[in-house]
Specification:
Belongs to the amidase family. InterPro entries: Amidase, Amidase_CS, Amidase_dom, AS_sf. 42% of the residues lie in helices and 13% in strands. By secondary structure, it is α/β, with parallel strands linked by helices. The chain has a single domain (4-472), classed as Alpha-Beta Complex (Amidase signature (AS) enzymes), CATH 3.90.1300. It has an 11-stranded mixed sheet with strand order 1-3-2-6-8-7-12-13-11-9-10, with helices on both faces. Helix 6 (168-175) runs parallel beside helix 7 and helix 9 runs antiparallel to helix 17. The two termini are 33 Å apart.
């Protein structure tokens, strides 16, 4: 924890290096002001964002005014939220009053909501200062963050590699020190994969845990969005993930499946058993990913966890089932995507459907769709039974390190390879369990890490295990953009 003495010895323009936990404590105790923290992050944005294009809109005057209000609240002795005065960013597919919810689409450039969505509402309740909007691919539907409206976001570790998608702007900005915490959402890896690609941490909570609403506030959400899409934080430390998680967790009536579950659960029986799931028969992990899994297993073992290599075949079935249920929902939006989307998203969606046909045939039927949801319930209860013996599962985030930019639209074969590498992204989203992506090391100049899955509404157990891994990680952020 930073102390006031540390503050006196630290240049105020380097506050952007601090964690949200440190900033919140220093602001609360009067060691620094929110204005100083926000100014430091704005200066950092001015320095590195022109290279990375992580934040596509920044509003200094609005952010500094909010920071001044936060400082007044401190001076008056008012009750402070967990992120009081701390700068954060919000993804451009989430509503923020007065700022366009573009979703990376040119035709939505003037889609300006009158009021905050659930995420912005809860961030403000926690005292956070929203200073910018992070980039996403068009319609938030690629593992590369690029669109015709806002341009391409780059990975600070290697500008030729994807920062991930769809929360690539969020991950890139946090890794480079623009804000300590960023908002993201995830229906098939859109928090976890960008965190992995950029060497930071990302939490996919249990569906219904953090309220959100993706899409037109007056419209209807597809079943896959209601049951599989989640909101969540990206950060550089486990302590910041906890703060981001808590700050976004308050009830909002707009979320149709919100569940007011406690943030802390009953202690697990010790030693806590961890199942190491390396390969489900889709694509074998690279040497770098296998090494990360092995090292992490040892870290957890040394900390008193009981790690055992296991096989859970249902993940392969869940991975393929995601492509039936989600892509049939996407099918209804194809005319809109064709009309409003850019070349990249249209090509990506076309290749997604090509791979889906390999699993489910040329034209899946409504009966297939209904049976798919029935099967989903069965897979969920089977995994819940398994987790009674192994409350945590250790597995890859992706079987490879960060892909090359636009590898998803290079060819159908390239898309097929990427889809296979991301089997854990899709299977966990379909099953609806919480998971966290944690960096472990740097291999050939790129970060690599692992993923921990836990029981529903037991994110607290994920944080505990992630702290063990964090203590041994050799990935250091924030970093300056590298060529």
């Amino acid at each position: 924890m930073q102390t006031s003495q540390t503050v006196n010895n630290t240049k105020k323009d380097e506050l952007w290096r601090w964690s949200a936990t440190e900033l919140a404590h220093a602001i609360k105790t009067g060691a620094i002001s929110s204005r100083e923290a926000v100014m430091s992050c704005l200066n950092r944005i001015e320095e590195v964002n022109p290279t990375l294009n992580s934040l596509v809109k920044v509003f200094p005057e609005e952010a500094l005014a909010a920071a001044d209000e936060a400082d007044k609240a401190v001076s008056k002795g008012e009750k402070l939220g967990v992120l009081h005065g701390v700068p954060v960013s919000l993804k451009v597919n989430s509503d923020q009053a007065g700022h366009a919810t573009t979703d990376g689409v040119v035709a939505l450039e003037k889609n300006i909501p009158e009021k905050d969505g659930p995420v912005a509402t809860n961030l403000r309740k926690s005292g956070a200062v929203i200073l910018g909007r992070s980039n996403t691919p068009a319609f938030s539907y690629r593992w590369v963050t690029s669109n015709d409206l806002h341009g391409r976001t780059l990975n600070p570790w290697d500008l030729t590699r994807t920062p991930g998608g769809s929360s690539g702007g969020a991950a890139s900005s946090v890794a480079a020190g623009m804000t300590p915490i960023a908002h993201g959402n995830d229906i098939g890896g859109s928090i976890r994969y960008p965190a992995y690609a950029c060497g930071i941490m990302g939490l996919r909570p249990t569906p219904g845990r953090l309220p959100g609403w993706y899409g037109d506030p007056k419209g209807d959400q597809a079943p896959s969005v209601q049951f599989m899409s989640v909101e969540g934080p990206l950060a550089r430390s486990v302590s910041d993930l906890r703060l981001g998680f808590e700050s976004m967790s308050q009830f909002d009536p707009r979320d149709p499946i919100y569940a007011p579950a406690p943030l802390l659960g009953k202690a697990l029986q010790r030693p806590i058993r961890v199942g190491l799931l390396r390969d489900v028969g889709v694509q074998k992990p690279t040497a770098a990913v296998n090494k990360a899994l092995d090292e992490t297993a040892q870290y957890l073992t040394n900390a008193g966890y009981a790690v055992e290599e296991i096989d859970v075949p249902l993940f392969k079935e869940a991975y393929e089932l995601w492509y039936l249920l989600c892509m049939m929902d996407v099918a209804g939006a194809v005319p809109t995507i064709e009309q409003m989307g850019d070349v990249g998203i249209n090509k990506a969606v076309s290749y997604f459907f090509d791979v889906t046909k390999e699993f489910w045939g040329e034209t899946p039927t409504l009966s297939d769709y209904i049976k798919g949801y029935s099967r989903r319930g069965t897979l969920i209860y089977k995994l819940q039974e398994f987790l009674q013996s192994y409350p945590l599962l250790l597995m890859p985030v992706s079987t490879e390190q960060a892909f090359e930019q636009d590898a998803d639209i290079k060819s159908r074969e390239s898309m097929r390879r990427i889809i296979s590498a991301q089997w854990s992204m899709m299977s966990i989203a379909l099953l609806g369990f919480p998971s966290v992506s944690i960096p472990t090391s740097v291999v050939d100049g790129l970060p690599v890490g692992v993923q921990i899955l836990g029981m529903r509404f037991r994110e607290d157990t994920l944080f505990d295990a992630a702290e063990v891994i964090e203590a041994h990680s050799t990935v250091k952020t924030p970093i300056d953009p590298r060529s």
